[in-house]
Structure formats: structure tokens, C-alpha cells
Amino acid sequence: MDARAFYGLEPTADPAQWSLPIVQSLCSGLGHLFGGCGLGACVEALEQVTGRPLVWATGQYLSYARPPDVLEIRVDEVVRGRQVSQARAVGRVGDDDILTVNAAFGHRDVEHWGQWAERPDVPPPDTCPPPQLLDRHESTIMDRLDMRMADARTFDELDGRPGSGRSSLWVRMPGLLEMSAAALAIVGDYVPFGISQALGARAGGNSLDNTLRIAHVVPTEWVLADIRVHTIQAGFGHGLVHLWAENGTLLGTASQSTIVRAWRDGPSPTGEKS
Q1: d(CA 28, CA 149)
Q2: Which residue(s) pair with 227 in the sheet?
Q3: Which residues does residue 225 pair with via DSSP β-bridges, in sequence order?
Q4: What is the dihedral of CA 82, 85, 86, 90, to 10 degrees?
Q5: What single DSSP character describes residue 59?
Q6: What is the DSSP string of 177-221?
Q7: Sign of the four-CA dihedral 172, 176, 178, 179
Q8: Phi then psi for 156, rounded to 5 degrees?
Q9: Is the bond leading into 68 cis (omega within 30 degrees of zero)?
């Protein structure tokens, strides 16, 4: 399936209006829309309306959507140039704003290119163990992802000793036939996982934002989420995720700021927001 089918994103009679039924398989184990799914669905709607590929998108999370809500996504292509579009999307449930997304789209053929970021040296996904999931993750977005711990501690190993601030996960989405910006939005939503790894504590966070920047999307079954937590201060955490293809191509980056919270109801090996 493509990203539109993966999300269940539905067009309406108005080309600028899209609907996203909130179902459990798009939610976190806490019962609300997973942030990466919200950003990814908005990105897909924006790409459909502009007819151009994503360059960057930043989403601000304002409230929660839960089943059986329907997220109505309104797209506005604010500026359309010869090669670049600037656009926004607002996702609402009734009169409540759930998230806003500002983004740019386009493609330019220029002679200059390069890649300077360095991918971490980690084992291939088929040799890495999966994380332990909890009962509450059944039928959620976590159930639709195949994850492997490339360089990370299990929650039993989170003994209070701070880590290096860097951790990594292999992630794939079985059934998704093509890699896309809308798919990378989900894999990029793992700074909260890195918070627990950096602190060495059973903690995560609520995302305040998520900014996705696309480099070069190539076919790949697995994506390596290379998570780098920069700082945790005054109850907030800031970090970055490099998104790597199996062949070493940098697909893009995702950065987030989070409200840091201790896990309330037991350990969450995915760093899930609580």
C-alpha cells in the first residue's frame, strides 16, 4: 500500500480538504493519535494538493485526537512559485485545533550535491533484537511497525546511569510499498525514546513539535533512526534524528522538543509519550 492507504487518508469534494478517521492503529498506547502519524498524514495531503515533493515540514502539536474522532485537514497553498511551493495544513476535530503544519515543497535540478553526516556503525537489522512491547500496544501504531534495537538499552537496563545521548533503532513498516516523506514522519518521531536512553531512566515526553527535513528518498526496507539528544533542561528535552537507508543514504532528519515526563504506569520501551 502507499502512504495514503496506510493512513486511511480520505479526499473530499473539496480538493483542499482531507479527512483522517482516527483509528486505534494510528494511535499510541495511550489512546491518542501518534504525533508522527498526524504529521505524516498532513504531509501526504499537502503533497497531494501541491503536486510537489516535500522539502521540509514542521508540525506543532496543540491537542489530542482519539477514536472515533475524524481529523479534518485543511490545506492552503500560500505561495506557488516556478519550482517551490510554501503551504500550510491545519488539522481540526470539530472546533478544536489538533495540529498545524507549515511546509515547503519542490525540486530543483542543480549541479551541487553532497552528504557529510556520518551514519553510526551498528549491526544489520536481522541481527538486532526487537524491543519488548506492552499489552497496551496491541493494535496500535506500534503493532504496525517492526523495530529492532540497533544501539539501545532495554528498559530493564535503564538503571539511572546517563547514556551518551545517542541511540538508534531500525524501523520498517510492513505492507508499505514505497518510502516517502509521509512514512519518514513516523520514524522521525523518536526523540522521546532517546530521552529515556540519555537519562538512563524510565522517562519519555510529549512532543511539542516535529520538524522533518527531506534529503534524498531512496527505496529501502529498513530505516535507521539515529537519535541524538542534545539537552534536557527545565523539564524540556531537545533532540535530532538522522534517518538512514540501509545503503547509507541520508533520507532526512527530524528534530523535536518535548515535555519530559516520567512514565506513569510502568516502563515503555518505545519511549512513548505519557
Answers
A1: 19
A2: 167, 241
A3: 169, 243
A4: 150
A5: E
A6: -S--HHHHHHHT--HHHHHHHHHTSSEEEEESEEEEEE------S
A7: negative
A8: -70, -20
A9: yes
What separation in angstroms does the CA of 262 have from each of 29, 255, 258?
A: 15, 21, 12
DSSP annotation of 12:
-
Asked whether 86 and 78 are in contact (CB, 8 A), the reply is yes
Residue 95 neighbours by CB distance under 10 Å: 5
Q: Helix (H) and strand (E) counts for the chain?
A: 4, 13
- DSSP for 72-140 reads EEEEEEEEE-SSEEEEEEEEEETTEEEEEEEEEEE----S-------------GGGSPPPPPPGGGTTS
Domains of the chain: 3-106+125-262 (2.40.160.210)
Please, is 58 exposed, middle or buried when counting C-beta atoms within 10 Å of its C-beta (0-12, 13-18, 19+)? middle
Helix (H, G, I), strand (E, B) or coil at 42: helix
- Whether residue 269 is predicted with pLDDT greater than 80 in this model: the reply is no
Cβ atoms of residues 27 and 34 within 8 Å: yes
Q: Helix or strand or coil: residue 32?
A: coil
The Cα 221–Cα 224 span in angstroms is 10
Residue with cell 557529510: 116
Higher pLDDT, 264 or 142: 142
C-alpha grid cell, residue 87: 503551504
Q: Tell me, what's the pLDDT at 264?
A: 63
Tens of pLDDT along 209-243?
999 999 999 999 999 999 999 999 999 999 999 99
